Amino acid sequence: MTWLRAFGEVVRSGLTIEETRLEPLLALRAAAGVAIVVGPALWLVSPAYAASAALGAYSAGGATFQRSWRPRKVVALGTGAGLALSTFVGYLAAGRLVTFLPLLAVWAFAAGMAWAVGSTAGIVAATTVGSMLVTITLPTSTGRALEHAGVIALGGVTQAVLILLFPIRRWGAHRDALADALAAVADYARRLRHDPTAPFDPEPLMTARDAAAVTPSQARTRPPVLHGPRGLAERIRPVVAALADPDVGAPAEGPGRDRARELLDAAADVLDAAARSIRRGTPAQVRPESMDVLRVDEEHEVLEGPARQAAERLVELLGEVLEIARSGCARETTPAPPGPAGAPFLVRPTMLRLVPVVVRAVRRETRRDSPVFRHAVRLAAVATLGYLIAARLPLGHGYWAPLASVMVMRPDFHRTYARAVARLAGTLAGVALATGVVRALGPDAHVSGALAVVSAGLSYTLNRTGYAYSQCFTVAYVVFLLGMGGQAWEQTVPERVVLTLLGGALAMLAYVVFPAWETPRLPGRLADWLAANGRYAAAVLRDYAEPTPEHHADMRRALLESRQARAAWQEAYDRARREPVRPRGLTSREAREAQEAIKGLGRAAMLMESHVPRADSRFVPEAERFAEALETDTAKAAAAVREHRNPDWGRVEEALHAWEDTAAGNGSPAVRREAQLQRRALEDLATAVSRTPLERDVDSAREEQRVRATLAAEGDGSGPAHRDG
Description:
The protein has 725 residues and is mostly helical. The protein is 72% helix and 0% strand. The chain has 3 domains: 3-169 and 360-513, no CATH class; 172-221 and 223-327, no CATH class; 519-711, Methane Monooxygenase Hydroxylase, Chain G, domain 1 (Up-down Bundle), CATH 1.20.58. InterPro entries: Memb_transporter_dom. This is Integral membrane bound transporter domain-containing protein.
């Protein structure tokens, strides 16, 4: 992608309105937290204290809108504490540049490395850098700095208390995550009615698993309905796929296919009912027609063989789902404490035990080629450089330039540039809005404080519709706060616009100077995914060959690793497609074809998982040998993909031929057919990535010519208008 086209994508993405459900009650509660702190501080003390209080309450309230499976009050308290600490430490070093700039650089670097833990930690850490830049201008002594830090922390405490006193949808995010997982499987079942090989994105299941991890204290209060249905969704997914697949399930045409479609539609209906029940916390009703379909008639059932086994297994699993759909809650269970013998829930470390987890995560990312490490370096450099440049300009509030940079920068190119564009657009709209209100009303300090609270509430409300639209009211909130302190809009508005433009430009330039492109890393991501899918397929085969609890646990671990590798590939692939960088190692066509081939390998393993027998079944040595060959060849092929060599599947071919030639083929014919599907997927992968260096150069040149032709067509109006997919 060229720079011109990439920047066009950036502008469209930055100004796109995201269709998401608004949460006005949460916004009202967070805005009330700002008002509770700002009002008394303004009335009893001074506008400076009110500004400090507003910073803590506003930032803590905003942090509660970030995705986190920990209680919102914990997030609010942690944000308030981090803001208070950064304010006080910043003031101690603020006397001279020789002390403050190194502290700012170290603090910004640490905030950038916080992305190793997750996006929420990275965003909250960035706000502490902003707090250090802003509030060091307020206190006049160490004692006053402590007071300001305390007031900022009080803002976080206030938000936490409001969350405790006025809970809104307790466990709401966890309910939504589980309901989304069930709804995703329901949608998958419906799509399988018309496309028996339809793809499935496991992201909802991965999110539900993240949400299912709780601390021991959370486990004691978690609703029972959140304890079991995720496992049902995991088990239903391969069963509906096996039922729909014409190679190993229902026939492609005839009464068997019609019966499979009926079962898939009934399964989708039951899963949707369970999703509604969990999301709303109320009982749900299932259509009587679906209940009739789920009754298997032993004498008149048209499905046979593996298809009938899949149908019976599906009906059994849906029967468990029906208990949830009818009652609105799962069976009551008493959670046992976590232990090595196997915990009934996924354990999330407490805040104290999170420290070594964070240290390990940061240590893994402390390498030169890590996107997180490079982001931390950029953040530290831009924060200090922006502070120095703005301090030399004949403008007040110079901290706005580095603050804008810090708040828009992300570890990847597209989001950094999109947020820079969105912040500038939001700033222009916000200052225009606030200026119009100030000129029309001429508000005093108390009215300005009230307008700031209203703007904060609107910013919270639009938090998830797009950064530009939320930023519009954030800017208005800042202008009203400064007006509350007695500063005229004629001074603050032009400064804000110029310094925001400077900060955004520095953030963009930093990514050009020290980038972290995903395009060169695509072969490695693809290799990781291939190796993980190979281990998953081999684990399924071993569990089929000898069903034991140990093999089943290995299969589950391999599945989770495969999903993580797939998510890492998908994220890298999506980022690479938006980068203004030529393909390296993999052309766009090779990446697409290889992606589909590896998806096929994973799908074949998933189909095989639905035929894993129960414990104590007879040993199938042919499946064990095929598992060894598959794991070995995929591991070698992963190394070949990294080194741009062509993969070889010799051992897989030999093991599969031996299985097919053994005494009428021991084991299930459906499983052998699924093994053949795995071999076909590997052949497709070899076709996708097997290119000579000359062929790769020719493909790259053709892609570049195609992109230029498309841009030329769009430029003269003869081509189709671009629309985001």
